């Protein structure tokens, strides 16, 4: 069974940089997995930050960036702000029309 | 402005059925794939199903295969998720998503006796 793993929680200081990752239990993440990243606050729909590894969604500040780091997909937030405190999810395409979300990372800014 | 508006959620008994709708506007609907994603409140996102732009390619998560059916009517700019034989564990907010970029506001499905 395919499992997509994210850090359950992470903490960053205001103004700091943090990299969240998205890993596969069955191998390396690549551009072929079309990793996408979402930000969600309680009671709201997810907001798309990054799609297709590194394409920033419309209106998303350039301090959010996506990449492949080693064998994982990565979301880097540069210059973290208080309102970045949210849950962050990745999703990966696994082939044969199937997609799998990671369990999410709860980011604290303090 | 892209808009996706889900409807059709509600309370249903285990074993019952519901049909969710996703009405789209602000873009050329028949050019885009649509996904359904669900989320138990307070828990993570789970991919459920997707349909390609003309309805000829469909896929499902194992947890719903054989019980849920995704479809679309491009003339009505609407996608659907027919959910049969519902289980308690299917209770969640269901989101309609355009190509994993634009999200609707979700519709709540409650499965309880």
Explain this structure to me?
The complex is a heterodimer of chains A (110) and B (113). Chain A is 0% helix and 53% strand. With 110 residues, chain A is an all-beta fold. The radius of gyration of chain A is 13 Å and the shape is globular. In chain B, a hairpin with a 6-residue loop joins strand 5 and strand 6. Chain B is globular and about 40 Å long. In chain B, 37% of the residues are buried.
Relevant terms:
heterodimer, A: mainly beta, four-stranded antiparallel beta sheet, about 0% helix, about 55% strand, B: about 110 residues, mainly beta, seven-stranded mixed beta sheet
Write a brief caption for the model.
The complex is a heterodimer of chains A (about 110) and B (about 110). Chain A has about 110 residues and is mostly beta strands.
SSE map:
The complex is a heterodimer of chains A (110) and B (113).
Chain A: E1 4-6, E2 9-12, E3 17-24, E4 36-40, E5 47-51, E6 55-56, E7 64-69, E8 72-78, E9 87-95, E10 98-101, E11 105-109
Parallel strand pairs in A: 2-11
Antiparallel strand pairs in A: 1-3, 3-8, 4-5, 4-9, 5-6, 7-8, 9-10, 9-11
Chain B: E1 3-7, E2 10-12, E3 18-25, E4 34-39, E5 45-51, E6 58-60, E7 68-73, E8 78-83, E9 92-98, E10 102-103, E11 107-111
Parallel strand pairs in B: 2-11
Antiparallel strand pairs in B: 1-3, 3-8, 4-5, 4-9, 5-6, 7-8, 9-10, 9-11
Quickly give the structural class of chain B. mainly beta
Helix content of chain A: under 10%
Q: Helicity of chain B, in percent?
A: under 10%
Taken from the alpha-carbon principal axes, the silhouette of chain B is globular
Order of helices and strands of chain B: EEEEEEEEEEE
Overall pLDDT of chain B, averaged? 97
Helix and strand string of chain A, N-terminal first? Answer: EEEEEEEEEEE
Largest sheet of chain A: 7 strands, mixed
Shape of chain A: globular
**Oligomeric state of shown chains:** heterodimer
Distance between the termini of chain B: 40 Å
Distance between the termini of chain A: 36 Å
- Poorly predicted parts of chain B: none
What profile does the largest beta sheet of chain B have? 7 strands, mixed
Which chains have the largest interface?
Answer: A-B, 20 and 20 residues
Strand content of chain B: over 45%
Please count the beta strands of chain B (DSSP E, at least 2 residues each): 11
Number of helices of chain A: 0
The tally of beta strands of chain A, per DSSP, is 11
- Total number of helices of chain B: 0
